[in-house]
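Task card 7
Instruction: Convert sequence to C-alpha coordinates.
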Amino acid sequence: MRNKLGNFFMIAGALLVLAAVLLLYQNRREAALADASAQEILPRLAEQITKDGEELPDPYDTAMKEVEIDGNNYIGYLAIPALGLELPIMSEWNYERLKIAPCRYYGTVKSGDLVIAAHNYERHFGNISKLEEGDEVYFTDMGGVVTRYAVVARDVLEPNAVEEMTAGNYSLTLFTCTYGGKSRVTVYCDMVKE
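Output:
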Protein backbone atom coordinates (compact mmCIF):
# COMPACT_ATOMS: atom_id res chain seq x y z
CA MET A 1 0.00 0.00 0.00
CA ARG A 2 2.81 2.40 0.92
CA ASN A 3 4.51 1.80 -2.45
CA LYS A 4 1.27 2.48 -4.35
CA LEU A 5 0.76 5.74 -2.48
CA GLY A 6 4.37 6.76 -3.15
CA ASN A 7 3.97 5.96 -6.84
CA PHE A 8 0.75 7.96 -6.96
CA PHE A 9 2.44 11.04 -5.49
CA MET A 10 5.41 10.64 -7.83
CA ILE A 11 3.15 10.44 -10.87
CA ALA A 12 1.00 13.35 -9.64
CA GLY A 13 4.14 15.45 -9.05
CA ALA A 14 5.47 14.63 -12.52
CA LEU A 15 2.13 15.60 -14.06
CA LEU A 16 2.13 18.91 -12.19
CA VAL A 17 5.67 19.68 -13.37
CA LEU A 18 4.68 18.78 -16.93
CA ALA A 19 1.60 21.03 -16.69
CA ALA A 20 3.76 23.91 -15.41
CA VAL A 21 6.23 23.45 -18.28
CA LEU A 22 3.39 23.38 -20.83
CA LEU A 23 1.85 26.52 -19.31
CA LEU A 24 5.21 28.31 -19.44
CA TYR A 25 5.67 27.22 -23.06
CA GLN A 26 2.17 28.45 -23.96
CA ASN A 27 2.76 31.81 -22.26
CA ARG A 28 6.09 32.32 -24.05
CA ARG A 29 4.53 31.30 -27.36
CA GLU A 30 1.68 33.80 -26.89
CA ALA A 31 4.21 36.50 -25.92
CA ALA A 32 6.30 35.86 -29.05
CA LEU A 33 3.20 35.94 -31.28
CA ALA A 34 1.99 39.17 -29.61
CA ASP A 35 5.38 40.82 -30.10
CA ALA A 36 5.54 39.77 -33.75
CA SER A 37 1.99 41.00 -34.33
CA ALA A 38 2.60 44.38 -32.67
CA GLN A 39 5.84 44.90 -34.59
CA GLU A 40 4.13 44.00 -37.88
CA ILE A 41 1.23 46.39 -37.22
CA LEU A 42 3.30 49.36 -35.97
CA PRO A 43 4.73 50.52 -39.35
CA ARG A 44 1.36 50.03 -41.04
CA LEU A 45 -0.25 52.12 -38.31
CA ALA A 46 2.41 54.84 -38.60
CA GLU A 47 1.75 55.08 -42.37
CA GLN A 48 -1.89 55.94 -41.67
CA ILE A 49 -1.26 58.71 -39.15
CA THR A 50 -2.55 62.01 -40.51
CA LYS A 51 0.29 64.18 -41.71
CA ASP A 52 0.58 67.78 -40.46
CA GLY A 53 -1.78 70.04 -42.35
CA GLU A 54 -3.89 67.24 -43.83
CA GLU A 55 -6.60 67.40 -41.21
CA LEU A 56 -6.96 69.73 -38.26
CA PRO A 57 -8.38 68.05 -35.17
CA ASP A 58 -11.47 69.52 -33.53
CA PRO A 59 -10.19 70.86 -30.19
CA TYR A 60 -13.59 70.31 -28.56
CA ASP A 61 -14.07 66.70 -29.67
CA THR A 62 -12.69 64.24 -27.09
CA ALA A 63 -13.27 61.20 -29.35
CA MET A 64 -10.13 59.59 -30.68
CA LYS A 65 -9.68 58.95 -34.39
CA GLU A 66 -9.50 55.23 -35.17
CA VAL A 67 -7.92 53.31 -38.03
CA GLU A 68 -8.74 49.71 -38.91
CA ILE A 69 -5.94 47.24 -39.59
CA ASP A 70 -6.66 43.55 -40.08
CA GLY A 71 -10.14 43.90 -38.58
CA ASN A 72 -9.01 45.71 -35.41
CA ASN A 73 -9.32 49.43 -34.66
CA TYR A 74 -6.30 51.35 -33.38
CA ILE A 75 -6.08 54.83 -31.82
CA GLY A 76 -2.32 55.37 -32.12
CA TYR A 77 0.87 54.08 -30.60
CA LEU A 78 2.72 54.31 -27.31
CA ALA A 79 6.46 54.79 -26.91
CA ILE A 80 8.27 54.08 -23.64
CA PRO A 81 11.97 54.88 -24.30
CA ALA A 82 13.19 53.64 -20.88
CA LEU A 83 11.93 50.15 -21.79
CA GLY A 84 12.72 50.35 -25.50
CA LEU A 85 9.06 49.87 -26.41
CA GLU A 86 6.87 51.16 -29.23
CA LEU A 87 3.45 49.53 -29.31
CA PRO A 88 0.25 50.03 -31.29
CA ILE A 89 -2.80 50.69 -29.10
CA MET A 90 -6.17 49.17 -29.94
CA SER A 91 -9.25 51.31 -29.42
CA GLU A 92 -11.13 48.85 -27.18
CA TRP A 93 -9.96 46.07 -24.95
CA ASN A 94 -10.91 42.46 -24.53
CA TYR A 95 -8.83 39.41 -23.68
CA GLU A 96 -8.40 38.30 -27.29
CA ARG A 97 -7.22 41.76 -28.40
CA LEU A 98 -4.73 41.90 -25.52
CA LYS A 99 -3.01 38.87 -27.12
CA ILE A 100 -2.25 41.09 -30.13
CA ALA A 101 -1.47 44.54 -28.70
CA PRO A 102 -2.13 46.79 -25.70
CA CYS A 103 -5.64 48.23 -25.60
CA ARG A 104 -7.39 51.35 -24.43
CA TYR A 105 -9.22 50.35 -21.28
CA TYR A 106 -10.82 53.71 -20.57
CA GLY A 107 -10.73 57.42 -21.40
CA THR A 108 -9.03 59.56 -24.02
CA VAL A 109 -6.01 61.80 -24.36
CA LYS A 110 -8.16 64.94 -24.67
CA SER A 111 -10.25 64.14 -21.60
CA GLY A 112 -7.01 63.61 -19.65
CA ASP A 113 -7.84 60.16 -18.32
CA LEU A 114 -6.44 57.61 -20.79
CA VAL A 115 -5.98 54.13 -19.32
CA ILE A 116 -4.10 51.47 -21.32
CA ALA A 117 -4.01 47.77 -20.46
CA ALA A 118 -1.62 45.12 -21.78
CA HIS A 119 -0.58 41.59 -20.98
CA ASN A 120 2.55 41.13 -18.91
CA TYR A 121 4.46 39.81 -21.92
CA GLU A 122 8.06 40.98 -21.79
CA ARG A 123 7.73 43.07 -24.99
CA HIS A 124 4.38 44.52 -23.90
CA PHE A 125 3.90 45.70 -20.27
CA GLY A 126 5.87 42.94 -18.53
CA ASN A 127 8.52 45.42 -17.35
CA ILE A 128 6.48 48.52 -16.50
CA SER A 129 7.23 47.95 -12.83
CA LYS A 130 10.82 49.01 -13.68
CA LEU A 131 9.71 52.48 -14.74
CA GLU A 132 10.89 55.22 -12.42
CA GLU A 133 9.52 58.61 -11.54
CA GLY A 134 10.34 61.03 -14.35
CA ASP A 135 10.61 58.39 -17.10
CA GLU A 136 8.92 59.67 -20.23
CA VAL A 137 6.06 58.04 -22.13
CA TYR A 138 4.76 59.30 -25.49
CA PHE A 139 1.41 58.68 -27.09
CA THR A 140 0.96 59.48 -30.79
CA ASP A 141 -2.67 59.56 -31.89
CA MET A 142 -3.98 58.90 -35.40
CA GLY A 143 -4.19 62.65 -35.98
CA GLY A 144 -0.41 62.89 -35.60
CA VAL A 145 -0.57 64.63 -32.22
CA VAL A 146 2.18 63.51 -29.85
CA THR A 147 1.40 63.82 -26.15
CA ARG A 148 4.29 63.62 -23.70
CA TYR A 149 3.86 62.17 -20.22
CA ALA A 150 6.14 61.57 -17.25
CA VAL A 151 5.82 58.76 -14.72
CA VAL A 152 4.77 60.12 -11.33
CA ALA A 153 3.87 56.98 -9.34
CA ARG A 154 3.61 53.18 -9.35
CA ASP A 155 1.32 50.93 -7.40
CA VAL A 156 0.12 47.34 -7.14
CA LEU A 157 -3.66 47.16 -7.04
CA GLU A 158 -6.19 44.45 -6.41
CA PRO A 159 -7.67 43.03 -9.64
CA ASN A 160 -11.07 44.58 -8.93
CA ALA A 161 -9.71 48.11 -8.17
CA VAL A 162 -11.20 49.56 -11.35
CA GLU A 163 -12.07 52.90 -9.77
CA GLU A 164 -8.44 53.53 -8.78
CA MET A 165 -7.45 53.16 -12.44
CA THR A 166 -10.32 55.08 -14.04
CA ALA A 167 -10.88 57.92 -11.55
CA GLY A 168 -9.12 60.42 -13.83
CA ASN A 169 -6.58 61.47 -11.20
CA TYR A 170 -3.76 60.95 -13.74
CA SER A 171 -3.50 61.87 -17.41
CA LEU A 172 -2.28 58.39 -18.37
CA THR A 173 -2.45 55.09 -16.51
CA LEU A 174 -0.74 51.90 -17.69
CA PHE A 175 -1.49 48.54 -16.13
CA THR A 176 -0.89 44.84 -16.45
CA CYS A 177 -1.51 41.82 -14.29
CA THR A 178 1.18 40.24 -12.17
CA TYR A 179 2.17 36.66 -12.94
CA GLY A 180 -0.68 34.55 -11.70
CA GLY A 181 -3.12 37.47 -12.10
CA LYS A 182 -3.62 38.16 -8.39
CA SER A 183 -2.97 41.89 -8.70
CA ARG A 184 -2.31 44.70 -11.19
CA VAL A 185 0.98 46.55 -11.65
CA THR A 186 -0.10 50.14 -12.29
CA VAL A 187 1.97 53.09 -13.51
CA TYR A 188 0.54 56.61 -13.29
CA CYS A 189 1.72 59.42 -15.57
CA ASP A 190 0.98 63.11 -15.84
CA MET A 191 1.02 65.12 -19.04
CA VAL A 192 4.13 67.22 -19.57
CA LYS A 193 3.31 70.74 -20.72
CA GLU A 194 5.71 72.01 -23.37
